[in-house]
Amino acid sequence: MKKFTFILSIVFLALISSCGSSQSIINTANGYDLAKYKYVVFSANNEGDAELDDILMMLENDISEKLQAVSPETARVLISQGENVLSPKINIKTEKWDGGETYISITFYDYYTNRSVAVIKSSGMGISISQDQEIAYKAIKKELNKVFNSNSQSIEIR
What residues contact 76, with CB distance under 8 A and at least 6 apart? Predict the structure, then answer.
């Protein structure tokens, strides 16, 4: 009987530790094709808790793998050459008390027109705050891969 209880406890703990849910969505503005964007300018106008800056940095790295990061000065030169440039605003929030859920949203703006082109959102809920964050991060990373998969080739700045 002790062996059965021990095995049942292990199975229960394994189920609890793997529990988690995520949700993610992508909205794209009419008339905009994200495949035509090859460059990105990051700014400091992101929002969220300062202790989540590690997730912010990981998201900027993920975006930089899909789009070539350039300075604002280089972006203006590229735009004058007919290139399209995006600028993301990243928002990360973690609820610490109300059941603990992490929300991540990235709004991509056309750098020239400042019009929102796409919004990608994810949320994650797990057993702990760190698991919430990991679930939300993996969900938004999956959506970024879907959106920018065709842009992942090597890009050379003229």
Answer: none
pTM: 0.78
Nearest to 47 by CA among 86, 113, 103: 103
What is the pairing mode between strands 68-69 and 37-40? parallel
| Max CA pair span of the chain | 76
* Dist. CA 55–CA 6, nearest whole Å: 37
pLDDT in tens, the chain (158 residues): 666 565 545 544 444 444 566 666 777 778 788 889 999 999 877 777 777 889 999 999 999 999 999 999 999 999 999 999 999 999 999 887 766 789 999 999 999 999 999 999 999 988 888 899 999 999 999 999 988 875 444 334 33
Residue 38 to residue 145: CA distance in whole angstroms: 14
Spatial contact of 78 and 68, defined as CB atoms under 8 Å apart: no
